[in-house]
Every structure is written in structure tokens, then in C-alpha cells.
Design goal:
About 60% of the residues lie in helices and about 10% in strands. It contains 14 helices and 7 strands. A 5-stranded mixed sheet has the order 2-4-5-7-6. β6 and β7 form a beta hairpin. α6 runs antiparallel to α9, α9 runs antiparallel to α10 and α11 packs across α13. The chain starts with about 20 loop residues before the first helix and ends in an 8-residue tail after the last strand. Bound molecules: adenosine-5'-diphosphate. Adenosine-5'-diphosphate binds next to α13 and α14.
């Protein structure tokens, strides 16, 4: 038997049942293992139980003297309890937890025996034994518990046989002390069993908790590893997109430039089909240039931290409106800019986002109806919601998420020009600023794009 520090056992594997004695094996398995209470919990409980033992000494002394016992005699009897308490305290200090708990248990049971003795063996005093037995299961350790049970057995059996009157103050008990000892053993066993069941439950719950904690730790480690992989592959992809689009520009410029030269030099000199083909090459090169520019922009967003520069969104929107003058004129549309806040962020990214949203509002108008685009903002739950609304063709609600994906378009180029990168870029910019973007539309009466920017991106005014 070790009297050293208790080693908490994390999980509770089932104990193997030996020699086919399945019933006995099951019983043993259903018992607590003991000694699994974490040291800090053990110490906390031991502090209270040992304190209770110390508190019994003056309590019992007063009780005994009040009942007319001789002071010197009482003092001597209580010296046994004091000795238990003292040695228990000293051994605990020397990290001998189990020994200290066993001595405390014996001390408390001695208090029960003394109480019965001072109370002239009345039956009511025996409740102290029952309470102590249950209390001692709090150690969740078989050594102090079994020592305490053995103590009760010896006290009731031997003490009851030698001096029945001092243990069971009852005529029937004095006549049949062993029978009474048996009855009391039943009570003590019942009380102890209740404590043991609670102890077993606690052990199971703790083991489940340890397992759940382990699983959580493993899951967190896996998640972190996945997040790391994802971050790495994202960065690689962005670098690839950046390098590819950057390097593609050079040959594309050559193709575009020579197609233009071909057009200028040979227009009308070759047949009509050749002119048409040269036109296609030029047009394709221009479109590819636009896509590459947008891809480059897309891959650049998020490469650096968002600056903490104040950005006056109203001023920014007015600049954007000016830059879209041709599109506004051609469509015959109007852009209304309402009260917009000053936020902190990257002005060129925010300008790009506003430009994409306003330009889309102008582009996707109903045939024959000049577009009307309105830009305004409102404060909702501590964040700014910047809305760009139009009265155009709208977006079917089922497509409301899809359109934010890369190269996702709801219309062919024959209907509306575009690359399908604009909204993907807007989402990346919004998220880079710690915000969100979504669209509200019933699919007919126009579309309302909302960019929510967190309040920390609001500049101090
Ligand atoms: P692009 O405008 O180059 O096609 P976007 O990424 O900006 O690409 O938009 C993706 C798709 O979302 C568009 O092709 C269009 O179908 C739809 N969309 C975007 N804005 C609007 C709008 N204001 N009204 C209706 N549909 C829109």
C-alpha cells in the first residue's frame, strides 16, 4: 500500500474478470476504482474534512463536560482524537495524502464512538457514524474508506460485546449485542453504499470529461493543422494567380499590339473575313487584359494589412461617380449619393468596391429604362451598413450567394458585358476589412447590395 501522493488516472478501462467469474467481475467493474481524484480536488476536500476533525475536539469536549463528565477524563479521551488530527496534519504536510486521509477518517470515526460514549450509547448518536461513513467517500479512495468501515465493525462488534451498554443503550441490544451489531452494520453498509454509488458516478463523469477534453484537444490540433494547410495553399494559389496574371500581361500586350498593327496596316487590303478576324483578336486581347487586371487586383487584396487611414466614403463615392461619367451618360442613368460615414481602411480597395457596385447598378438596368442607383448608409448594431441599390433587373434570391463566386455570371456576354470577377473582388475587399457583403433582391424590383463594415473601421472624427 502506498501512502504517497495520489496519481489521478484519466480514463477508467474496464477491469478484466478472471476465471470466467463473470458475475464477480461485473460487480468489481461496477465499483469505483479509487485513487482517481485529482490532487487539487483531493486537497480541497481533505482541508474541509480535516478541519471538521479539528472542530470536533472542542465540540465534543463541551458536550462531554456539559453532560457531567470529568474534565480530566474527557481531556484524556479526546487526546486520542487530537493525536489523529495532529499526525494527519503533519503527514499531509509531507505529501503523504493517503496516510493523512486514513488518519483523519479514523479520527472522525473515533469522534463518532466518543459521541456515542458521552451520550451513554443512545441510538440517535449512531447517526454520526452513518454521516461520517458517507462523508469519507468524498476521498474517493478505498484505503481510508475501508479502514473506516473496519473501524465501525470492530467498534460495534468488539466494543458492543465487551461493553454493550456503552455502545447500544438498549435492553435488547445488551442481551444480543452481535445481532444489534449486525443491524447497525446494515445501516452503515447502506450509508456507505450510497456514498460509493455517488463516488462511482463522479469517477465516471470525470473520466468522460477527461476523454472529451482529450478528443477536443486532438480535434483542435487537427483543425489547426488543417487551417495551416488551407492558409498555405491559399497563399500559394494567390501567389500563383498573381505571378500568372502578371507574367501573362507581356505576351498579351504583344498579341494585342500586333493585332492592332495588323488592323491599321491591312484594313481593306485583305478580304472582309480577314478584317473581321483581326477585329476578334483585338477584342479578345482587350477582354483578356481586363480579366488579367481584375485577377491581379483580386490576388493583391489581403496581401497587406488594412491600413488605419480615415476614408471619407461620401467623398470617395463622388470620385467614383465622376470616374463613371461615361457609363452614366451612355445609360442616361443617375447616381444619388446620400450621407456616408468616414471609416478607416484602404481607400483604393473601398473605391474599387464602390465602383464595382455602382457600375453594376448602372449596367444591369431594365431594357429601355434609365437606371437609378442610390448609395447610402445606416448604423445597425454598432456596424455601418453601406447600401448600393438600383431599380434594375434584380437577382433571383436563389442566386444571391452564387454571384459572389469567381467568374460567376447570370447572363451571357451578349446581354451584358463583364468578367464575373467584380463581386468576388467586392467580397474579398469587404472581408479584408473585417466586414461582410450580401445582396437583397426579390429578383425583379432591382437589387440592393449591402456592405457591413465593423465599427472599429469607423474613423475617429
Ligand atoms: P460582372 O458584372 O463582370 O458580370 P460581377 O461579379 O460584378 O460580374 O457580377 C456577377 C453577376 O451578378 C453578374 O453577371 C450579374 O448576373 C449579377 N449582378 C451583379 N450586380 C447586379 C445588379 N446590380 N443587378 C442585377 N444583377 C447583378
Amino acid at each position: 500500500m502506498t501512502t504517497g501522493a495520489l496519481k489521478p488516472a484519466p480514463a477508467l478501462p474496464a477491469r478484466p474478470s478472471r476465471g470466467g467469474r463473470a458475475g464477480a467481475g461485473r460487480l468489481i467493474n461496477s465499483l469505483p476504482r479509487g485513487g482517481t481524484l485529482p490532487e487539487e480536488d483531493f486537497d480541497r476536500r481533505h482541508r474541509v474534512i480535516l478541519g471538521l476533525l479539528w472542530a470536533h475536539i472542542p465540540g465534543l469536549f463541551i458536550f462531554a463536560v456539559a453532560r457531567g463528565y470529568d474534565v480530566g477524563h474527557t481531556f484524556l479521551e479526546l487526546a486520542i482524537v487530537a493525536a489523529f488530527a495532529l499526525v494527519a496534519t503533519l503527514t499531509w504536510r509531507r505529501e503523504k495524502r493517503r496516510l493523512s486521509a486514513t488518519l483523519t477518517s479514523l479520527g472522525l470515526l473515533t469522534c463518532s464512538a466518543l459521541l456515542v460514549h458521552f451520550w451513554s450509547g443512545v441510538i440517535e448518536a449512531h447517526f454520526h457514524f452513518f454521516v461520517m461513513i458517507v462523508l469519507l467517500t468524498l476521498y474517493e479512495d478505498w484505503v481510508p474508506f475501508l479502514m473506516a468501515a473496519l473501524y465501525v465493525l470492530l467498534h460495534h462488534g468488539i466494543g458492543g460485546a465487551v461493553d454493550p451498554g456503552s455502545v447500544f443503550n438498549h435492553a435488547a441490544a445488551i442481551e444480543n449485542p452481535w445481532r444489534w451489531a449486525g443491524i447497525h452494520a446494515l445501516f452503515v453498509t447502506g450509508a456507505g453504499a450510497a456514498g460509493v454509488v455517488a463516488w462511482r458516478q463522479q469517477e465516471r463523469m470525470r473520466a468522460d470529461l477527461v476523454q472529451a477534453n482529450d478528443a477536443l484537444k486532438r480535434a483542435t490540433i487537427e483543425l489547426e493543422a488543417h487551417a495551416g494547410d488551407l492558409g498555405r495553399s491559399n497563399r500559394e494559389l494567390e501567389t500563383f494567380a498573381y505571378v500568372a496574371s502578371h507574367d501573362l500581361q507581356e505576351p498579351l500586350r504583344t498579341v494585342g499590339g500586333f493585332a492592332q498593327l495588323l488592323g491599321q496596316r491591312y484594313e481593306g487590303k485583305l478580304d472582309a473575313e480577314a478584317d473581321e478576324f483581326i477585329g476578334y483578336i483585338s477584342e479578345g486581347a482587350t477582354r483578356m487584359q481586363t480579366m488579367i487586371n481584375e485577377l491581379l487586383l483580386y490576388s493583391r487584396v489581403g496581401r497587406t494589412a488594412v491600413p488605419h487611414d480615415p476614408v471619407d466614403l461620401r467623398e470617395l463615392a463622388e470620385h467614383v461617380e465622376a470616374s463613371l461619367a461615361t457609363q452614366i451618360d451612355e445609360s442616361g442613368g443617375t447616381v444619388e449619393i446620400g450621407q456616408l460615414p468616414t471609416v478607416t481602411g484602404d481607400s483604393s480597395e473601398l473605391a474599387r468596391m464602390l465602383q464595382n457596385l455602382i457600375s453594376n447598378g448602372l449596367k444591369f438596368h431594365k431594357p429601355g429604362e434609365p437606371p437609378r442607383v442610390a448609395v447610402d448608409a445606416e448604423r445597425v448594431n454598432g456596424e455601418w451598413q453601406i447600401a448600393v441599390a438600383d431599380d434594375g433587373i434584380g437577382i433571383p434570391p436563389a442566386q444571391g450567394e452564387r454571384i459572389f463566386g469567381m467568374f460567376q455570371r447570370l447572363h451571357g456576354r451578349g446581354e451584358y458585358e463583364g468578367t464575373g470577377l467584380g463581386l468576388a473582388l467586392c467580397r474579398k475587399i469587404a472581408e479584408h476589412h473585417g466586414g461582410r457583403i450580401w445582396v437583397e433582391s426579390n429578383g425583379e424590383g432591382g437589387a440592393r447590395f449591402v456592405v457591413a463594415l465593423p465599427s472599429e473601421s469607423e474613423a475617429a472624427r
